[in-house]
Amino acid sequence: MKQGSGTRRTGLIVTAAASVLLLAGCSTPAATSGGSDEAAAGIDKLNIIVPADPGGGWDQTGRAIEKDLQANDLVTSASVVNVGGAGGTNGLAAMKTEKDINTLMVMGYVMVGAVETNSAANRIEDTTPIARLTDEPLVVVVPADSPYDTIGDLLDDIGETGQAVSITGGSAGGADHILAGMMLKEQGIGADKLNYIPYSGGGESLAALLGNKVNAGISGVGEYAEQVKAGKLRALAVSGSDAAPQLPDTETLTEQGIDVVLTNWRGVVAPGSIDAAQAKILTTLMEDLHATDTWQTTLTDNNWADAFMIGDEFADFLTEDIATVKVTLKDIGLL
């Protein structure tokens, strides 16, 4: 995905993102010195909030940031704290009360929808956007012994039996949920027939699939690819415009006659109370991380597309997409 581009579907444009306005709180003091061992960015200890349980894409992203920042001595130390639940809005609430200016929170498209569907009191607009980092397509999977051989089989059965067919994925209103709704809408199936079972962590949805507690699952390709390769899950379709490198033999939705394309993105934001100088420090930190060979290797190893975007461009991207996501959620019956 090229920098600045959105996720596009013929007849329906969905930009896989939230939107945010850069809020600069001028009363917050500048970062304090950490001594001679302090990293060049002026950050001694970086706090990373992952607004989800361990095992999912946000957690993977947060821990990759933690590891690569320290490996390149960009910060003296970094630590990850998981604050799961409610599509990331619990983490968003934690960010609202965070006093440490050296804090980043992993977030992305999932949080955008969750804020709307949960009518969350704390919003992404209350944070300071720092950087968009990655994006990836989603994959629709079923257990290995499922009777569904194609995505058409799955959707036909939903059309006939409705909520007797269950689909699991990430939190309500997120990319996984929206993709399920978009597929049904494209096939002329009413939103009332969707039985979507959300989980806040990728590990929980995987356990439900492997335990045959649900009929199908949707998640980022990276979260299910190994189980597909091991023969424990069967991939029915990927949601990008092209085949996913991790699952090259899995056709896209469009190749199977379902005119839907959607990709997920992830990035980081900071507390909304920080001042412009601190926002610049954190933005520079992400620029420095992005420039390292270590981070480029991390992208390759995880099959994450490089979707790097910072500053005003990222803020504008988020602002536009909050409006787009609201319309999309209403269009597919999720609001």
TrEMBL record:
The keyword Iron-sulfur does not apply. SUPFAM superfamilies: Periplasmic binding protein-like II. Keywords: Signal. Residues 1-30 form the signal peptide. InterPro entries: BUG, Bug_dom1. Belongs to the UPF0065 (bug) family. This is Tricarboxylic transport membrane protein. It comes from Cryobacterium levicorallinum.
